């Protein structure tokens, strides 16, 4: 069964705590928290203080998707604020191995994120070390964009690699998810889907989550 991680990027920011509570009751499996700094991506969202304020509204795991220039400098603040999974981009100029080591040492899970133009082979040496690989199916920065179908090959490759080497990482997909694309990524081997505008754009969160799980 696929896990659903609603992206708060499309939630009502004026009542974010209530949105977190509502989406938890509606059957979400994780909470996806998109952090943007206006440099790594051309948009700015929220920081660790907001995460800390909304953390108490749910017992689910929170994943911080860090779309920022210096994830090595800031990840700990999100961890301290209550993030359970720290996601950083392979495209960010950091020592990937050291960052993975530091996050694990803190007792948190690591997610490595891959942008649409980046070749999936770049993750090869990290696959034995990470807990989640997140395949971006839109260019990061904004919700509500169209799914880029060519990324499905990356999911299939990851699924093959983990079977071949007995790796334990989960495959997550983020961007442009609706019933149709959810079904495509599920067939390709995805375990977690992030959905923002498709869930929060509908009044009945519970129904959308349920349908996303079974489509
Ligand atoms: C985009 C973010 C996504 C975004 C997805 O940069 O990483 O998590 O919220 O939004 P939708 O589901 O609307 O494509
Ligand atoms: Zn995201």
UniProtKB/TrEMBL annotation:
Catalyses which reaction(s): D-ribulose 5-phosphate = D-xylulose 5-phosphate
Protein's UniProt keywords contain Thylakoid: no
Domain of life: Bacteria
GO biological process, one term: pentose-phosphate shunt
Cofactors (names): Mn(2+); a divalent metal cation; Fe(2+); Co(2+)
EC numbers on record: 5.1.3.1
Pathway membership: Carbohydrate degradation
A GO CC annotation given for this chain: cytoplasm
PROSITE patterns: RIBUL_P_3_EPIMER_1, RIBUL_P_3_EPIMER_2
Cofactor note: Binds 1 divalent metal cation per subunit.
Binding site for substrate: 7, 65, 141-144, 174-176, 196-197
Enzyme class: isomerase
Pfam families tied to this protein: Ribul_P_3_epim (PF00834)
UniProt KW keywords: Carbohydrate metabolism, Cobalt, Isomerase, Manganese, Metal-binding, Zinc
GO MF annotation: an example: D-ribulose-phosphate 3-epimerase activity
InterPro entries: Aldolase_TIM (IPR013785), Ribul_P_3_epim (IPR026019), Ribul_P_3_epim-like (IPR000056), RibuloseP-bd_barrel (IPR011060)
Active site feature: 34 (proton acceptor), 174 (proton donor)
SUPFAM superfamilies according to UniProt: Ribulose-phoshate binding barrel (SSF51366)
UniProt-annotated binding residues for a divalent metal cation: 32, 34, 65, 174
Family the entry assigns: Belongs to the ribulose-phosphate 3-epimerase family.
Main function: Catalyzes the reversible epimerization of D-ribulose 5-phosphate to D-xylulose 5-phosphate.
Full protein name: Ribulose-phosphate 3-epimerase
Organism annotation: candidate division TA06 bacterium ADurb.Bin131
């Amino acid at each position: 069964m696929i896990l659903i991680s609603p992206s708060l990027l499309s939630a009502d920011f004026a009542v974010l705590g209530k949105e977190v509570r509502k989406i938890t009751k509606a059957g979400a499996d994780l909470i996806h928290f998109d952090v943007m700094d206006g440099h790594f991506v051309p948009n700015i969202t929220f920081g660790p203080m907001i995460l800390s304020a909304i953390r108490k509204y749910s017992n689910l795991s929170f994943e911080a998707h860090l779309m920022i220039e210096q994830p090595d400098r800031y990840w700990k603040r999100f961890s301290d604020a209550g993030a359970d999974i720290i996601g950083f981009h392979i495209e960010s100029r950091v020592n990937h191995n050291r960052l993975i080591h530091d996050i694990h040492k803190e007792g948190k899970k690591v997610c490595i994120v891959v942008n649409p133009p980046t070749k999936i082979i770049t993750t090869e040496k990290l696959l034995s070390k990470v807990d989640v690989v997140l395949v971006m199916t839109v260019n990061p920065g904004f919700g509500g964009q169209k799914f880029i179908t060519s990324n499905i090959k990356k999911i299939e490759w990851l699924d093959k690699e983990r079977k071949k080497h007995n790796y334990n990482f989960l495959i997550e997909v983020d961007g442009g998810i609706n019933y149709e694309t959810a079904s495509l990524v599920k067939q390709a081997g995805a375990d977690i889907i992030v959905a923002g505008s498709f869930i929060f754009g509908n009044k009945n969160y519970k129904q959308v989550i349920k349908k996303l799980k079974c489509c």
